[in-house]
Amino acid sequence: MAKLQKQPTVVAELGRPETAAETTARKAKQSYLYKKRKTLNNLIYSLLVTLGFLALIVLIVPRGTGDFTTRNVDVQQLAEGASDTFGQTVANPAVGDKWLAKQAKVRFDREELVTYWYIGYTTPSGNYAGVAQGHNNEMLPADARWVNKQLEGKKQTGTASFAGYDWQVYDHSSDSADSSNVLWAYVTELPQATLIVSGTGSEAEIRDLAEKTAVSLTE
User: Fold this and answer.
1) 184-189 β-sheet, strand order
2) What pTM was computed for the model?
3) Looking at residues 172-178, what average pLDDT do you find?
4) pLDDT above 60: residue 210
5) How does pLDDT run across 39-78, given as a tens digit for each residue?
6) Which CATH number is 205's domain given?
């Protein structure tokens, strides 16, 4: 008996059997969709593996908070050692116990050729305050370019006289402490250096620091 030939399958969407061209197109589309899904699945899998790897690194790498919150360096001791390096007496303001000195060291600005003694504080209100005492290579006060750099380009807004010195005042208290370290600043010239006291603390805190800094240099 002759073998019956299998009738083409009727495709529901068409209501009739597919043509050879339609079959080829359907299979090509299915192959494309399969590869696309596979690629997406592989991408997701790779992303998950990467995220898992990063999470593992975060977990196994030791992380310390450091001592910044409680750090309070001995400015007096560091100042005694820095005076010889700096070439003249450096500031050592007698601030209260609520002031925390985070850093005290001699720095050098290679662009402006200025050597300066720097002290960075956390004020009683928890804000930043800094002292910068700088001179050039001739042991003369640092020029206006260095001052401008230290004060983030801020403009002078007034003057004041206290602690035996005339000061340039920089009142930028309307600025945000999130975008600037100079909300208040006092600048004066010493015989052999330029003195800058600035920060994000209150006006009273920055002025108090400026006065005590000046006093420490005249005692």
Assistant:
1) 100-109, 114-122, 128-135, 194-199, 184-189, 165-171, 158-162
2) 0.69
3) 92
4) yes
5) 766 667 667 767 766 665 655 555 544 566 778 888 999 9
6) 3.40.1000
* 36 and 92 both lie in a single domain: no
44 and 85 in a single domain? The answer is no
**DSSP single-letter state for residue 162:** E
Strands 158-162 and 184-189: unpaired
Q: Of 161, 158, 148, which Cα lies nearest the Cα of 214?
A: 161
| Kind and range of the H or E run holding 24 | helix 20-60
Nearest in space to 169 (alpha carbons), one of 155, 183, 185, 154 = 185
- Whether 4 is covered by a domain: the verdict is no
Please check whether residue 129 is in contact with residue 197, taking contact to mean a CB–CB distance below 8 angstroms. yes
Residue 70 in domain: no
What CA dihedral angle connects 94, 130, 105 and 69, to 10 degrees? 90
Beta-carbon neighbour count of residue 63 at 10 Å? Answer: 7
pLDDT of residue 218: 86
Q: Does residue 189 sit in the same domain as residue 148?
A: yes
Does pLDDT of 126 surpass 60?
Answer: yes
Query: Which of 81, 88, 84 is closest to 191 using CA atoms?
Result: 88
Quote the CA–CA distance of 206 and 6 in Å, as a whole number: 97
Q: What is the tally of structural domains in the chain?
A: 2
Residues written for the chain:
219
What are the angstrom distances between the C-alpha of 128 and each of 99, 101, 119, 182?
10, 10, 11, 9
